[in-house]
């Protein structure tokens, strides 16, 4: 099973289009700084919102079951498409906010729809990858997918979250199952975990 950082999983790949959109829209947003753990909504009342993550990283969670979908580093624009989710600051963040209606107006005025199309195509592919990961045929494969994703997260994120919490927040797997598989992989020398944090993936066997 490939776990090298040079084959960065699609969910971890930064979007060049997101950065360009943020730079174009930033002058029109209201920027604030948020502490780690603060929750931001993508819908307030009946109003859909766009959040421009200038710096820091945040978690995207599904509204229906609070499952962690992905951790996103800035700079990026969130809220142009999916709104059935909420955001949690994974670390101190600098975020600008505007309504989706305003964002769409500025996009039209600046003729940015081609850029938006590229960004939405990338998001669609990421959501497909996420769905495919969750439908892995075995718990072991699901956990391996999350380990590969975690090892490719920025070091600032990997240092702040335990591997067990990362996996369980992203998949409906019991704590005992996660801990058993992690323990076996660690004892076999396949992964390195220190103080609950994932340090290294040496090799993930294709079978458990």
TrEMBL record:
Transmembrane segments: none
SUPFAM superfamilies attached to this UniProt entry: cAMP-binding domain-like (SSF51206)
Domain IprA winged helix-turn-helix: 140-206
Pfam families: HTH_46
Superkingdom in the source lineage: Bacteria
Protein name as annotated: IprA winged helix-turn-helix domain-containing protein
């Amino acid at each position: 099973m490939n776990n090298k950082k040079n084959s960065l999983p699609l969910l971890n790949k930064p979007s060049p289009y997101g950065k360009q959109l943020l730079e174009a829209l930033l002058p029109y947003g209201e920027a604030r700084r948020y502490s780690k753990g603060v929750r931001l909504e993508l819908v307030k009342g009946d109003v859909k919102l766009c959040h421009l993550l200038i710096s820091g990283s945040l978690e995207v969670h599904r509204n229906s079951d609070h499952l962690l979908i992905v951790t996103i580093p800035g700079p990026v624009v969130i809220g142009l498409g999916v709104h059935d989710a909420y955001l949690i600051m994974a670390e101190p963040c600098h975020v600008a906010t505007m309504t989706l209606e305003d964002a769409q107006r500025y996009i039209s005025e600046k003729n940015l729809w081609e850029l938006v199309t590229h960004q939405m195509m990338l998001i669609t592919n990421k959501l497909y990858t996420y769905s495919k990961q969750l439908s892995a045929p075995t718990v072991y494969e699901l956990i391996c997918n999350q380990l590969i994703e975690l090892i490719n997260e920025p070091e600032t994120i990997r240092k702040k979250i335990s591997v067990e919490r990362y996996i369980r927040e992203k998949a409906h797997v019991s704590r005992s199952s996660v801990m058993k598989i992690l323990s076996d992989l660690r004892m076999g020398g396949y992964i390195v975990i220190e103080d609950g944090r994932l340090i290294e993936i040496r090799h993930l066997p294709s079978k458990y």
